[in-house]
Amino acid sequence: VAVETFFDPLGMSSSVPYHNVVVDSDKWVGSLGKERLDRFKTSLENFAQPYAYYGAGETVHDSYPSRDYVGAAAGFLSTVRDLAKYDIALDRHMFLKKETQEKAWTPFVSNAGERLPYGLGWFVTDYHGHKLVWHYGQWGSGFSAVYLKVPERNVSVVLLSNSEALADH
Where is pLDDT greater, at 126 or 49? Predict the structure, then answer.
């Protein structure tokens, strides 16, 4: 679904929905097609390999998480360029109406009346009077990401790492 809904329409040609999709190609060829699977294989071969960083500059090469770990909150592999295409689509309201997106980017208020730092699927915080909308990702060791938007300034920042350094410690 993500491939047909996001990757293909937005031209996200380097994104992969699942790191084992090429290992399990017999399972996916019927729904994704050989051409897409070949594209995913090429992307996976070109991605930086995951590693874990330990004190004193020691790096340990890591592997992709087990198949059982992939889910709605983790598993996509992408590039900054492809995520920029997604970001543009988000700003143009291609998937959500402006009103729905604004609701998602509005912090919840607790039963006690306290403003919480989370909307609908997004962290929402205030930094010196500017609304920050963001999320991060971490796939155990080996991968992490930060996606930050400052809507009133029309600024987006996408950081991807092949270590856990962006979201850990």
Answer: 126
- 146 neighbors 136 (Cβ within 8 angstroms): yes
Provide the mean pLDDT of the chain. Answer: 88
**Rounded Cα distance, 107 and 98, in Å:** 16
Q: Residue 79 in contact with residue 14, Cβ under 8 Å?
A: yes
DSSP character at residue 65:
P
Other Cβ atoms closer than 10 A to 127? 8
> Residue 101 corresponds to which tokens in the numbers above?
């997106």
- Round to whole Å and give the CA distance between 50 and 68: 18
Both tokens of 42, joined, read 């090429």
Least confident window among 58-62, 150-154, 155-159? 58-62
Residue 109 in tokens:
């208020």
